[in-house]
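Below is how a single chain appears once it has passed through the pipeline. First comes the sequence as given, then the structure the pipeline wrote out for it. We keep one example in the README because the format questions we get most often are answered faster by looking than by reading.
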Amino acid sequence: AVLGSSTARGLASLFLGLLFGLVGIDGQTGAPRFAFGVPELLDAADPPYARLEMLGARLEAGTRELIARKSLPLCFQRVGSMSCLYFHPGPVRNYTEAARSDTAKFAAYFRGMLERGVYLAPSQFESGFLSAAHREADVDSTLASAAEVLAAIF
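Resulting structure:
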């Protein structure tokens, strides 16, 4: 009765439960558990939301520093891991304000970032997203590329 009507399904569920329970980082000791050589699996037991927030804040702080350093007419807006760099002094609260963005400069920014291996949404009116696959080094590399491209545009 514990396995239900299908022994195979019950055993498969038991195996998957044990597997998921043994993957990731141990919450009490911090020791890595089974990850099968895949670093992303170390986060399997813990949702990545806190890390995504930290990465988003890192991207926001770095971008805002770039904007402030040269007094650029840009506006960076972020919610969690979703963000957008508007080529408009902002703030941007609606489409009417977003439509005032300099789309020609955004296009140059998009192309410059793409040339450096940073893949952004191709429209000024789309948001970018960080994912659980991103690391601090990815954000730092993106900021370095952004600094180069913005210096060339402005």
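Residues 14 and 117 are 43 Å apart (CA to CA).

See the next section for the split statistics.
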